[in-house]
Amino acid sequence: MKWVYVYSDGTEDLGQHRVGLGDRFVDVVAVLAVDLVPVPEHGLVLLSPVAVAPTLVLLAPDGLTMNPWYWLATQTKSGRAFFRFTMAHPHWLFGFLRAANKFKWVNPGIYKFTHRYIDDEKVRSDLYARWTTMRGFRPDLRQLRNTIRKRNIPVHLFYGRYDRIIRAKRGERFRKGIEVQCHLQLLPTGHQLLQPEHLNMIVAAITS
Questions:
Q1: pLDDT at position 76 over 70
Q2: Buried b or exposed e, range 141-158, using 16+ CB within 10 angstroms
Q3: Torsion over CA of 94, 98, 100 and 106, rounded to 10 degrees?
């Protein structure tokens, strides 16, 4: 059995991904139901099966580093209060993002990605619940690398070459010291890795 971490920004149809993965990854990977929960920083939770997983596959994992905005919004009292207010009253953020996009202060990909979270009230509510619920989970990356090296666990990291949300340099930092076991591959896409045209590349990398 192989383990796969499926990251979603909460706006994708995970049911379709489950079908797609079931068709393409048959007898290659086992997709756990918990992996299909769209939780930012969810990669921290999945690190626990590493001790028993013969192969670990991570698709654009954002749990390998602490995003400064995530830290501010979840690890400080004032940040959590401001985060809660913004998710309930996002109008000021809408205005700021429009201005930032107009004057090219932010990358267009980040602008579109951010709008996916704040345009819909339920998505905002879910985002707040996920971030605050998961704020206590932090991986011990040194121990994780030691476990991977000691058990010689193959690890495959996949990132989008044009992804401006989760950059491949995070994976490069993580694999230092475990280059023999940990392989990183860039897919010709942005943040959305689970697209039909990329599944063959992912399967080929895992099974090679």
A1: yes
A2: eeebbeebeeeebbbbbb
A3: 90
- Phi, psi (deg, nearest 5) at residue 10: 90, -5
Domains of the chain: 3-66+138-207 (3.40.50), 74-133 (no CATH)
CB-CB contact of 45 with 34 (8 Å): yes
- Percent of the chain, pLDDT > 70? 74
| Its pTM surpasses 0.70 | no
Phi, psi dihedrals of residue 139, rounded to the nearest 5°: -85, 150
Q: What mean pLDDT do residues 16-31 have?
A: 39
Give CA–CA dist 180/199, Å, rounded. Answer: 24
Question: Shortest CA distance to 62 belongs to which of 126, 134, 154?
Answer: 134
Q: Which long-range contacts (CB under 8 A, 24 or more apart) does 175-184 make?
A: 177/145, 177/149, 178/145, 178/148, 178/149, 181/148, 181/149, 181/152, 181/153, 181/154, 181/155, 182/148, 182/155, 182/156, 182/157, 183/154, 183/155, 183/156, 183/157, 184/157, 184/158, 184/159
